[in-house]
Amino acid sequence: PGLRNAGCVCAQIQQTTGRRLSRQCPLLTGHLKEALNFQITVTLALLVCFALRVVLIGFLLAPLVWVANVLFCVLAAFKSQSGEGYRYPFSLRLLR
Fold first, then answer.
1. What tens digit of pLDDT does each residue of 51-84 get?
2. Burial of 56 by CB count in 10 Å (0-12 exposed, 13-18 middle, 19+ buried)?
């Protein structure tokens, strides 16, 4: 239960902070939506991995999803720090 609540709290903080800062910098809104879309995609992929643990495939896929998450987040951080836009390659575009 604690991890579920932590994810909701983190999303709420990101959304609240993003609303305040997006008024000052419209580019930030795009970065926040991209990051949130990607994290939703990662969460769904990890849920699929959890379900696939029954056939032992999930144990192999979950670390790959985690490594890809860290890698793409670091790449996005470097791109956004330099003022460029970044689109995650494997992301469901739920928020537009």
1. 888 888 888 888 898 898 888 888 888 887 887 8
2. exposed
